[in-house]
Amino acid sequence: MNHSPVEGFSKLSKQRKIDWLIKEYLNDDRSYEQILQQYWNNDDTLQKLHEEFSENTISNFYMPYGIAPNFLIDGKLLALPMAVEESSVVAAASKAAKFWIDKGGFKTTIINTKKLGHTHFILDVEPHKLQHFFNFKLKKKLFEATEEITKNMRNRGGGILNIRLIDKTADMENYFQLKASFDTVDSMGANFINSCLEQFGKTLKEEVSKEETFTQEEKDSLQIVMNILSNFTPDCIVRAEVSCKIEDLNDDSGITNEEFATKFKRAVTIAEIEPFRATTHNKGIMNGVDAVVIATGNDFRATEACAHAYAAKDGKYSSLTHCTIDNGIFRFWIDLPISVGVVGGLTNLHPLVKFSLALLGKPSAQELMSILAVSGLAQNFAALRSLVTTGIQKGHMKMHLLNILNQLGATEEEKNHFVNYFKDKTVSHHEVINEFNHLRNK
């Protein structure tokens, strides 16, 4: 089918957007309009609020919002909000939380909270000459020029921590960076950082144009390419860990504590040395992290990008979690680079985000970092525990069973039958179909 481009789509009303889409792409089938409308909120004010979070909005896309209870984190008992559509994520997190609650729970340490941003620029000048200019003139001017922007942040205990000139001419001709580090306290700080960086670009241009040691040709060569924060924050990092005596592991899978600990450690080591395994291993970690990130109104794309970049920081993609067995002590931990906020953005607007933060005791940004690292560690522990004992499918497919039955249009009575049928069996799609057909043909 050939379609026609549309002019001024963003200026159309919501109804006219829907009318155009149904006519142009959906063969004028008005049943699709009902699908969109059934996800609108009955409260017009709340619906309008949701629509204004983004652009060209025609409906809301719902995700399940679940709770993983019994998380003992640094001595506090918490219930974690998780927005996630994948079966078994909330169940796995809850199971891990329950496993560790009587073994001291999860312990966390904030290692650093530094965030980064860069002004990327081109300047055809000798690096030593530019460095002298930066050290004795430019750096001071950059701090002065951003005083008004940073005033409120400095009053809250944050601001610009440092600015450095980075010589990247070995990688690209005449390429330099102004690399700045920031503390944004309880906000994620993206807008704050970018505002500072854009001012850096303006100040750099002004100061270069006035610098007497630069020739006119050197001044004319300046090009501010871009001013932008980095979502790679290797110095904004939190550690979460669990540990206990091997004799206290008490796994109920039928293998000894010693075998469980040994197999578990080997599974982590495989993820440390094998990128194919590490990718799936870390994806499971992010199942737990992202679910809480979304529930608390933070940016899960930034969280993902940062975590995976950090996993490859040593030149090979590797596990985010680590495990040791020393002197009879089993220890499992994660170092997670993560930048999140509890003020600004959706945190002040989305009702469920407000609920999530209230549920967590209105945490600071650092406390939320700890909660997210724990969520990821718990998810990974649960997955590895299944992998080295019963296998991943037994628990996962039991949670997926209802999805399969809903696709088949099963009644509540039939669903109850299948729950009992698979009580002592591993769920498989093939077996569900066979039993469903048998049940319907009785």
From TrEMBL:
Catalyzed reactions: (R)-mevalonate + 2 NAD(+) + CoA = (3S)-3-hydroxy-3-methylglutaryl-CoA + 2 NADH + 2 H(+)
Annotated transmembrane regions: none
Gene Ontology molecular function: any one: hydroxymethylglutaryl-CoA reductase (NADH) activity
Pathway where this protein functions: Metabolic intermediate metabolism; (R)-mevalonate degradation; (S)-3-hydroxy-3-methylglutaryl-CoA from (R)-mevalonate: step 1/1
InterPro entries in alphabetical order: HMG_CoA_Rdtase, HMG_CoA_Rdtase_bac-typ, HMG_CoA_Rdtase_cat_sf, HMG_CoA_Rdtase_NAD(P)-bd_sf, HMG_CoA_Rdtase_sub-bd_dom_sf
Keyword DNA repair applies: no
UniProt superkingdom: Bacteria
Record keywords, A-Z: NAD, Oxidoreductase
Listed Pfam families: HMG-CoA_red
Enzyme Commission no: 1.1.1.88
Keyword check for Endoplasmic reticulum: no
NCBIfam families in the record: HMG_CoA_R_NAD
Database matches in PANTHER family: 3-HYDROXY-3-METHYLGLUTARYL-COENZYME A REDUCTASE
Protein family membership: Belongs to the HMG-CoA reductase family.
The protein's name: 3-hydroxy-3-methylglutaryl coenzyme A reductase
Organism: Kaistella yananensis
Source organism phylogeny: Bacteria, Pseudomonadati, Bacteroidota, Flavobacteriia, Flavobacteriales
